[in-house]
Amino acid sequence: MRTWRGERGEQWSSAQGLESILISIQSLMSSNPYENEPGFENAKSSEDKKNMAHYVAKIQHETLRLAVIQPLEESLGIQSDGTVLPPETHSSYSTDEEDETDQYSLEEEKVPFEPFNDLRKRRFLWYYESYMRAIEEAEPKTKVKQHFEKMPFEGTGNSMDGHFNYPELKKRMALIKETITNETIQWAIDGLALKQREAAMAVSLERQYERIVEDLCNKKNFALDLSISNGNPFIWDLTFFGRPMTHLDGGIFKMQISLSPRFPDEQPRVFVETPLFHHRISKDGVLCYFPLRTEEMRHHIEAVMEALEEESPPYDPRTTVNLDASQLFWGPPEDKKKYYRALRRSVERSTE
């Protein structure tokens, strides 16, 4: 993934830059997409209000289908009949060190540039609950195969045609999640094979792990215990002990960090195994965090800790991965008190 540095030396990826641009553009537009159409900025008639509801409904359906589901199915090798192609058949998939030699250079032009595949997968794990809740709320309002309503500004060659089929979207979402889960499991298997061959990536991750542990010891940081799982440098077990005078005080939280043989092109996936009611942790235990630098595991560990311990962060819509927790955390003071009470209860249960 391409990177560049900002004025203060921060490292930005192409994905982060594009995301910032899209957020800036979105801030200039109405939250009602119907009003963003030329000539309909001030449409307020009863017919317009009906059209608004129909327009939003089909945009939501097609956004899930075309912007979320379809690109992920393509990158994961999921076919229209529900079968999944083996990972080794994907054009960008390889764990063989020979890919770093001239042989790889000869094939490089044939491999499509897909810098956002891993980002999509990571974000899918973060927002899976949001996608499924959107489907569950919209499904009762439409019939299967019900055609989209045509808008007054839509014409030949410029229209959103199609029909609703939320049960199908739900089924495809579940398969995507299952496939990403299987891919993560495969990382460990492929990683162990690289370890046995003493491949460069396996050696590099072992060295990074050793340096991080040494640094923790030198700094007398006893809030964190880090180990390699069963000798596999592509699976790191992390235990975090809640620091005194914080909302996590007294808690013991176990996490697992899964690393890809293609790290850092594919970023780690962090799963919090100890149930914790936290606005940065999805209900499936996936942690949402942002490392300062993506190519060094030291920065990933630091970002994990920062995500868990942050007290008063600025609002960031990207971190809405636990809907119930986020609603309370970003709500009025009374809701925030409820959030911290629920967090404390889960912290207390972590030692049972």
UniProtKB/TrEMBL annotation:
Matching PROSITE patterns: UBC_2
Keyword annotations from UniProtKB, A to Z: Ubl conjugation pathway
Species this protein is from: Elaphomyces granulatus
Gene3D superfamilies per record: Ubiquitin Conjugating Enzyme
Region: Disordered, residue numbers: 78-105
Cited InterPro entries: Ub_conjugating_enzyme (IPR050113), UBC (IPR000608), UBQ-conjugating_enzyme/RWD (IPR016135)
Name of protein: UBC core domain-containing protein
SUPFAM superfamilies assigned to the protein according to its UniProt record, in alphabetical order: UBC-like (SSF54495)
Pfam families reported for this sequence: UQ_con
Biased composition (Acidic residues): 95-105
